[in-house]
Specification:
Elements lengths: L8 H11 L6 H16 L6 H14 L3 H16 L4 H4 L6
Helix pairs in contact: 2-3, 2-4, 3-4
């Protein structure tokens, strides 16, 4: 049984932004798409909040500095497109 993924307009904005960024954000695009696919394959809802938590989990477990940089950039992008998250993350010094 295939689970349908319902996206909000803000989530669609993220997808549109990443797809139109071209090579500049290719690593971040791949990370966000991978997060969404992983969440969907696990039967979880694919929401901005779920992607944020997934990316944080990946940040905590990576030791590769290049991967860490891409994960942090992907996290910034998702947080920036998530209503209310900007204020919640304002204390975090990127």
């Amino acid at each position: 049984m295939q689970q349908s993924i319902q996206q909000t307009s803000r989530e669609i904005d993220i997808t549109y932004h990443l797809q139109n960024a071209g090579e500049k954000l290719s690593a971040e695009t791949a990370l966000v798409e991978s997060a969404a696919q992983t969440l969907a394959s696990q039967g979880k809802s694919v929401t901005n909040s779920a992607i944020i938590l997934y990316l944080i989990s990946e940040i905590e477990s990576t030791t590769d500095p290049l991967q860490l940089d891409a994960l942090l950039n992907a996290l910034k992008i998702v947080v920036g497109f998530t209503p209310g998250e900007e204020e919640r993350w304002a204390f975090f010094y990127w």
